[in-house]
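User: Structure with magnesium ion, tokens only please.
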Amino acid sequence: MNDSLPEEIALRTETDIIVVRKSVREAATRLGFGITDVTRIITAASELARNVFLYAGSGVVRCRVLNGSDRVGLELIVEDHGPGIVDIDQAMQPGYTSGGGLGFGLPGAKRLMDEMEIESVVGKGTKITIKKWRKGT
Amino acid sequence: MSEERLSIIKVRDILMVTMPADPDDATVSALQERVLLAMERSTARGVVLDVSAVDSLDSFFARMIAETTRMVGLMGGRTVLTGIRPSVAITLTQLGLTLGKTRTALSVDRAFEILRDGSQQVQKP
Ligand SMILES: Nc1ncnc2c1ncn2[C@@H]1O[C@H](COP(=O)(O)OP(=O)(O)OP(=O)(O)O)[C@@H](O)[C@H]1O
Ligand SMILES: [Mg+2]
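Assistant:
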């Protein structure tokens, strides 16, 4: 089922955000997610990918199928070697932005997904893992 | 490149703007300038922005729409957004986004009605 999932999508330019959205749509649809969940996952991925492009310049998105004992899910890992996030709690606050955005990307992505984990080291980079489990199986 | 897929046509005195399915940032950014230029050139009195082909709206796109509405407003026009899919409405709301003062309509027909009625209200008194 996961053999045709793209292993890695490089994020270097704005147009790569579209590549991420397309790949994520394909992966989520193939896994049997409903249209609303597919849209949620695409939107969360789009927010994180754009953050990489804006704040770190470049990075990578990895897509993985989660095969739990009783459930199936999709995991996305969005990683960069940019400046890192100084205060993660602050960055997660709806409305907080350092870049003239709306400050909804990170908190929004968390609400749209089932799980989100941020690892960030100042000066080293940021790794954000998001997961969505398929409902109704 | 895909910027060309953003279509703007004039229907009577209203600009009908149709967004492509998965616009890149350049297309979304071009939205503002192209709509405002078209407003000026055609002396349209309102804009119908059709996003029915769009299957995901992120915070960047939403901000551009809200800003475009404000800019069109500064030029004296109104914008009505139409074609938001159910899944997009759910996602936008969960993201915590609003579209500012953008009016919305369920169909293109309704959007035209809103713009027509709105101008009658303004002209009556
Ligand atoms: N990959 C990253 N590397 C460094 N800093 C980041 C990264 N992602 C987010 N941030 C920081 O966290 C803040 C909040 O991010 P968030 O996506 O919530 O809002 P935003 O990007 O500022 O605005 P929006 O996403 O609504 O357009 C950013 O302003 C930025 O300072
Ligand atoms: Mg952001």
